[in-house]
Amino acid sequence: MMENETKTIEIKDLDFYYGDFQALENVTFDIPENKVTALIGPSGCGKSTFLRTINRMNDLIDGTRVDGDVIVEGDDIYKDEIDVVELRKEVGMVFQEPNPFPKSIYDNIAYGPRAHGITDTEKLDEIVENSLKHAALWDEVDDRLDQSAIGISGGQQQRLCIARALAVDPDILLMDEPTSALDPVATAKIEDLIDDLKEEYTIVIVTHSMQQAARISDYTAFFLMGEVIEHGPTQKIFEKPENQKTEDYITGRFG
Amino acid sequence: MRKSFEHQLEDLNQDLLKLGSMVEERIHKAITALKNKNDELAQQVVENDDEIDDYQMEIEQECINLTALQQPVAKDLRRINMVSKMATDLERIADLAQNIAEIALELSASDYVKPLVDLPKMGEIAQEMIHDALDAFVNSNADKAKEVAQRDSKINDLDEQILRELLTYMVEDPKTVQQSNDLIFVSRYLERIGDHVTNICEDIVYIITAERVSY
């Protein structure tokens, strides 16, 4: 991390277990504010597990255990007094497959704010419009907000899911392979969007596309068998990695 | 494990080596033609330059294809970019060999003021430098590349020595000016060849260590 950057998320000595199986081991690094951090590594290396530790999505899985610290905006999120609902409002998430609710476009976006107690129609209208604009989707759907979200294209659905995440005004966005189900055009739109969004949000993205990590991220962490092998500026990782395992993976000579 | 990519990289290595040996041969022929007043050899160097140009462009195209289709990173990226650059240096060396051959043709009708000793020596050093640099390239030997680059100072010393010597001839006898001037050019061409080989050595070190050095 550069000296003038603020760390939004600090991870210290993080271990994670699914029952007896240790999925993360001694993970330690900082994630800077308003930057894109990409997590890369082969399937089963722990990158998605790690992503889900940042908003405690792993809590939903039985038999999991966490050791070490995940500090988000100064708070250790695994302390007892942490309100997980409040945490997930600050740390939004977008998944691999677009998963809109079978409701109208408007209701998809308004769902979160309503759940957090906003009922004022004008306020909701404003949130819906702003969120869709932030997700670069407004111009494509502003004349059909009352239509079902299931009827729009996959790429539009994924931007809708990003808009839905933005509607509760988070600081951090977690993305788990957000473009793996999309065509190159829709992928390019999401990548442009990520580049715009980092002005206001801190983004952590899991991707299987090395080229995508290289294109869109400022920092890259390479995971292998539950450990972070190397973490650093993306340009350095892809031009001059320090660890031979990183070099083998990014040049495709792994395994 | 990217088998086909590995093969393509190996082909690229072989192609650069082939270009290198073609260029080595050009220098050898040009200098031998100059030394022995062999017009036929000189003519071969002058006439076959297209062959080198075509081969260089072929290597360049291979590099562009690999970049576009394989999205190389890290060491692969450095190798592919540097091979393209080294091919350009080798092509320039061949052009300089051609220039030397042209002078050999010009001078073949007249007697030399003295037998040529230092110019052939320079040519030999240059040829060995190319050979050993490419050896360092295939064996990924950065120390060797550095050692080869350092030999360039021998070429530079000889260039200065030859210049001083030929200036003396020119001052003593103005009839030698034309020939001495031509030979000074040959010396300068060989000196430039040494500089191109030094570039190649720097590129090899960059491929291996990711450090940009200047010798």
Automatic annotation (TrEMBL), chain B:
Tell me the compartments it is located in: Cytoplasm
An example GO BP is: phosphate ion transport
Identify the residues that the record assigns to the PhoU domain, covering every copy.
16-103, 120-204
> Which keywords belong to this entry?
Coiled coil, Cytoplasm, Phosphate transport, Transport
Report the coiled-coil segments: 24-58
Pfam families registered for this protein in UniProt: PhoU
One GO cellular component term: cytoplasm
State how it assembles.
Homodimer.
Q: Which family does it belong to?
A: Belongs to the PhoU family.
Q: What does this protein do?
A: Plays a role in the regulation of phosphate uptake.
The protein here is known as Phosphate-specific transport system accessory protein PhoU
> What is the source species?
Halanaerobacter jeridensis
